[in-house]
Design brief:
Layout (H helix, E strand, L loop, with lengths): L3 H5 L10 H4 L8 H26 L5 E5 L5 E5 L7 E11 L5 E10 L10 E9 L4 E2 L30 E2 L25
Antiparallel strand pairs: 1-3, 2-3, 3-4, 4-5, 6-7
Bound molecules: zinc ion.
The site of zinc ion has 8 residues, from loops.
Organism: Urochloa decumbens
InterPro entries: DUF3615 (IPR022059)
Pfam family, one: DUF3615
C-alpha cells in the first residue's frame, strides 16, 4: 500500500495524475467549481501531448505553462473508427531558450475509457508558429455550393471554431469533414 507521502509526489495535471480521471463528473456544478477541475484535466492532456512531442523531438525540452479552457474543443469524427477527438492549444516554455511557444495537440480516445487516461492518447502535437489557421466551424465558406470532393478538406478543421489555431492539415487526422459537425455557436467552456 503506497504511503501518503509518495502519493503527494504526483503533481496535479502531470501525465501521472490518474486521480483527475476518476473525480466524479462535474456537469451541473457552478462554473467556479468546474474551472479548477477542467484546468487540471486539460493540463494533463497537454502534458500527454508534450510527452509525444518530446518522443518526436528528443533534443528539445518543453515545460507546460498554460491552457485556456476555451482553447480546448471535443468533437465526434464520424468518419473514423474511434470517433472521440479533442483539439487544443496550450503554451509551453522551452527550457533551454526561455521562449514560450504555442502548441496544437490532437488527442483521440483509442483505448479503454476506464484506463488511466480515460482512453485518450495524444496522436499529434506541433508548435504553431506563423503557419496556422483557425478552425472553420462557424464560417460558411461554401455558400456557392462548390464543396470539395467527398466534402473533405484535408487542409483545414471544420470541427473547431476560429480561436483554436491549427497547423497544416496533414498534421492532424480529424476535423476535415466540411459538413460533419453541425453549425452554430461553440459549446466549449468560456473563462
Ligand atoms: Zn480542430
Amino acid at each position: 500500500m503506497p504511503s501518503k507521502s509518495l502519493e503527494k509526489e504526483i503533481e496535479e495535471g502531470s501525465v501521472d495524475d490518474t486521480e483527475i480521471e476518476y473525480i466524479e463528473r462535474v456537469y451541473g456544478w457552478p462554473i467556479e467549481k468546474q474551472l479548477p477541475f477542467y484546468r487540471r484535466l486539460y493540463k494533463k492532456r497537454a502534458n500527454m501531448a508534450l510527452a509525444l512531442y518530446h518522443r518526436n523531438h528528443p533534443d528539445e525540452q518543453y515545460q507546460f505553462l498554460q491552457v485556456r479552457l476555451n482553447e480546448v474543443y471535443s468533437f465526434i469524427e464520424y468518419r473514423l473508427k474511434d470517433p472521440d477527438h479533442m483539439h487544443m492549444n496550450f503554451v509551453a516554455l522551452n527550457i533551454k531558450t526561455g521562449l514560450e511557444k504555442l502548441f496544437f495537440a490532437e488527442l483521440c480516445m483509442l483505448n479503454d475509457v476506464y484506463d488511466a487516461n480515460s482512453g485518450f492518447v495524444a496522436i499529434a502535437c506541433e508548435i504553431i508558429d506563423g503557419n496556422c489557421e483557425g478552425g472553420r466551424r462557424i464560417k460558411c465558406i461554401y455558400k456557392d455550393g462548390k464543396f470539395p470532393p467527398d466534402y473533405y478538406d484535408g487542409q483545414n478543421c471544420y470541427a473547431c471554431g476560429e480561436k483554436i489555431r491549427h497547423p497544416p492539415g496533414a498534421v492532424y487526422r480529424a476535423g476535415h469533414d466540411v459538413l460533419g459537425y453541425g453549425v452554430g455557436e461553440e459549446e466549449s467552456l468560456v473563462e
